[in-house]
Design goal:
By secondary structure, the chain is of the alpha/beta class. The protein contains nine helices and 18 strands. It has an eight-stranded parallel β-sheet. The protein has a four-stranded antiparallel β-sheet with strand order 5-6-16-13, with no helix packed on it. Strands 1-2 form a two-stranded antiparallel sheet. The model has no long low-confidence stretch (mean pLDDT 96). The chain binds flavin mononucleotide (FMN). Residues 23-26, 48-49, 70, 72, 74, 76, 102, 130, 170, 197-198, 219, 221-222, 225, 248-251, 270-273 line the site of flavin mononucleotide.
Length: 309
């Protein structure tokens, strides 16, 4: 018989009983997953990125299958922050779930407006600031591809949120040096980073001989991007050894999750894998516990960043 393993983890000053979370946008606000397992049994639900106003998302088709992955151009479809805070958050808290709210904006100011609304909501574990989206004030350039713009978004959110709720900046891997972007958001007040968002890709339809997705480009997710996630996490951990990292990207088994943890992640979000298997997070959690025990770890914390020793 293997010894018990303490799976609990922290991100900034937030504590979680398990390091397995949902990935933003892949489980909405958790209602569908709640049919398969109690949401309090996982680390936290990271909700779909919410914006100030209700949104319909991008034109169809919005999905394409790719080898070992999926390309989506759903866009940030959602109810808007007011309806979200009135309905989704209270429901999640009622389930005993820990909640990480993901926010997204088209301008630096939109993030601050969202932060102001969240500040007065109690019971939130953390805020994930999705800066991997286009900045309409700067030629649609993705916020997180520029250190200065990334810092300005996080600085604005930090000033409003205050010191109590940890802020995680969600970064894109589509940059030359992800450690530089991580450093700039930390200097602006982020408590940690979420790595990685989807990787920009495109599929051409051979019948129409034009881009398949309505939005032309889309975000690549699933097993195809896991080595990119492992690399990004490893590089950020190396540059900033004490920075909490929430990892994600192509994790569909306990082995995959352990890989991200050894690279430096204190928590792991599961996205695309939940589409095929709604109970994937629970399966991965059980597999991870066994894998840690087999390697002689008595707690998850001992394994975080082990690959750097
Ligand atoms: C359909 C879909 C919608 C997504 N929506 C969001 C979103 O709203 N906000 C966000 O930060 N990331 C979003 N993501 C990115 C995921 O949270 C995650 O970073 C990425 O998919 C990599 O993880 P995975 O390979 O486990 O899916 C989305 C991904 C997918 C596939």
């Amino acid at each position: 018989m293997t010894h018990p393993v303490d799976l609990s983890t922290t991100l900034g000053n937030a504590w979680f009983p398990s390091p397995l979370f949902t990935a933003s946008g892949c489980a909405s606000s958790g209602k569908e997953l709640a049919q398969f397992f109690p949401l309090r049994d996982i680390g936290a639900v990271v909700t779909k990125s919410v914006m100030t106003k209700p949104r319909h998302g991008r034109p169809t088709p919005r999905m394409a299958e790719t080898p070992s992955g999926m390309l989506n151009s759903i866009g940030l479809q959602g109810p808007g922050i007011d309806a979200f805070l009135a309905n989704d958050v209270p429901w999640l808290l009622q389930q005993g779930s820990r909640v990480i709210i993901s926010i997204a904006g088209e301008t630096i100011d939109e993030y601050s407006v969202l932060a102001r609304k969240i500040r007065s909501t109690s019971g939130i574990s953390a805020v994930e600031v999705n800066i991997s989206c286009p900045n309409v004030e700067n030629r649609g350039m993705v916020f997180a591809t520029d250190c200065d713009t990334s810092a300005r978004v996080i600085d604005g959110v930090r000033k409003i949120i205050g010191g109590e709720i940890p802020i995680l900046a969600k970064l894109t891997p589509d940059v030359t040096n992800i450690a530089d972007v991580a450093r700039s958001v930390v200097n602006a007040g982020a408590d940690g980073v979420a790595l990685i968002n989807t990787v920009l890709g495109m599929v051409i339809n051979l019948d129409t001989m034009r881009p398949h997705l309505g939005g032309k480009t889309g975000g690549l997710s699933g097993p195809a991007i896991r080595p990119i996630a492992v690399r990004a996490i490893y590089q950020v951990r190396e540059a900033l050894p004490n920075l909490p990292i929430l990892g994600m990207g192509g994790v569909s088994s306990g082995r995959d999750a352990l890989e991200l943890i050894l690279a430096g992640a204190s928590g792991v979000s599961i996205g695309t894998a939940s589409f095929g298997n709604p109970a994937a997070i629970i399966d991965i959690q059980n597999q991870l516990r066994d894998l840690l025990a087999q390697r002689g770890f008595t707690s998850l914390k001992q394994a975080v960043g082990y690959a750097h020793r």
